[in-house]
Amino acid sequence: MEEAPSKKELKREEQRYKKKMAQAQGVICRAENRPFDQTILQNDCPSKRLFVSHFGCGDEIDQDVITSFCLENGGPLLNLSIFPGNTYGHLEFKEEESARRLIEQAMDVKNCVAMRFEGSDNPDRIVVFYYTPLRLDELKISEKMEIPTAEPATTGIIPGLYVYEEVITPEEEEAMLREIDQNKWTKLLSRKVQHYGYEFKYGTNDVDQSQVIEPLPQFCDPIIPKIEHILNEFKVSQEVMASKEKHTEIRTASELEKEGDASQWEPYLKHYGMFDQLTLNNYAPGDGIPPHVDKHSPFQEIFMALSLKSGVTMHFKKGEVVKEGEESKSEAQRDIYLKPRSLILFSGEARYNWLHSIAQRKIDKVEEQSAISKESDCTMTKLRSRQRRVSLTFRKVKFDGPCRCPYPLLCDSQ
Ligand SMILES: O=C(O)CCC(=O)C(=O)O
């Protein structure tokens, strides 16, 4: 049986808690640059919003431990935001009652709720909670982090964009990078590149079609069967293919199944063949790529990009919505977070009518549903530090004349 702590030990523990509390209050009030009583509320003035402080480095483990603690000791959460490199975060319960329950259950010292940080690498750590009247969007820390909030990448988030996660294992990812790094990187303004198959020509953004083609390099071996499997889902319309004047429509097998008749469609791969041009981009944290569409006429409709090592927010901006006899402009924009080892496939509107880019930043902000909370409306805002990211863009060179896509605004042929 564990011995009960002595009076002296309890006193020491209380002093330690008090010191942590005072430190946390000081850090929050200084960083928020507001008077104490507008920043932190006393325990007899409850609020459904709380500051949480002293949790460690603010990584995903911290976020999960704090989430579990809040759900168990409080109730359903609406949002929990922690910011890497900052020692405090902000959370909001659905109901004030939940915040009150957490404060009451875990209160050790007046005006302070402290939890032992079990699950972290430092189980001795004490985490402190305070009521606050401030909403997340009122915090100075949020302003400092003025970064667009990205949504997790999902299929259909933009028409024609498909997303496939964990297409390779972490071991395959490491092995690919080792091989890739044995080859020479060419330095551009804000990233480094390698090209395979046809050489990519910057300036005209196309390829030298007369150049002798090299097969895709061996380091692609783990991903090629996955790409084939994905491309096998795609079909092209025989009817439209027969007419050289029309844009070739593309559908997936499951879309055709829903629509009814698949007999007039043939496999995309059979018609166009496997990708034959590959561009590698190496981004250090802070690097990016300016807004662009992959030039329409030199490449077939479908292209794919694989992310290695780091996730990143990709910004998409819609060109123009083209309607018959009418010119209308749309400013539609999406920020989409691509996970490492995920593959995105561009087709249709996403390929032809949306510019994509990566902003030059070191941190991305992602809002996602909590995997821990059963509540479907509990969102977690996470700041993710970028690491080195290497992307592989697979394209198929096109020899059959100009592009006839229905999006002339961003088309080099129309
Ligand atoms: O890094 C990426 O995922 C995108 C690369 C890209 O847009 C390009 O190579 O044109």
Number of domains: 2
Provide mean pLDDT, rounded. 84
Please give the count of helices: 11
Q: What's the architecture of the largest domain in CATH terms? A: Sandwich
Number of strands: 27
How much helicity do the residues have?
10-25%
Q: Outline the low-pLDDT stretches.
A: 325-330
Strand order of the largest sheet: 4-5-6-1-3-2-26-25-7-22-19-24-17
Tell me the span between the first and last alpha carbons.
82 Å
Q: How is the CATH topology of the largest domain named?
A: Jelly Rolls
Using the CA coordinates, give the radius of gyration: 26 Å
Biggest β-sheet, characterized? 13 strands, mixed
Ions and ligands: 2-oxoglutaric acid
Question: For this structure, what is the CATH homologous superfamily of the largest domain?
Answer: Alpha-ketoglutarate-dependent dioxygenase AlkB-like
Fraction in beta strands: 25-35%
Overall, the morphology is elongated
The CATH class designation of the largest domain is: Mainly Beta
Précis, in short:
Helix content is 24%, strand content 31%. With 414 residues, the protein is an alpha+beta fold. The chain starts with 6 loop residues before the first helix and ends in a 19-residue tail after the last strand.
Overview of the structural elements:
Strand 9 and strand 10 form a beta hairpin. Helix content is 24%, strand content 31%. The protein has 414 residues and is of the alpha+beta class. It folds into two domains: 7-144, Alpha-Beta Plaits; 149-364 and 386-410, Jelly Rolls, CATH 2.60.120.590. The termini are far apart. The structure holds 2-oxoglutaric acid (AKG). GO terms for molecular function: demethylase activity; oxidoreductase activity. Residues 274-398 form the Fe2OG dioxygenase domain. It comes from Strombidium rassoulzadegani. This is Fe2OG dioxygenase domain-containing protein.
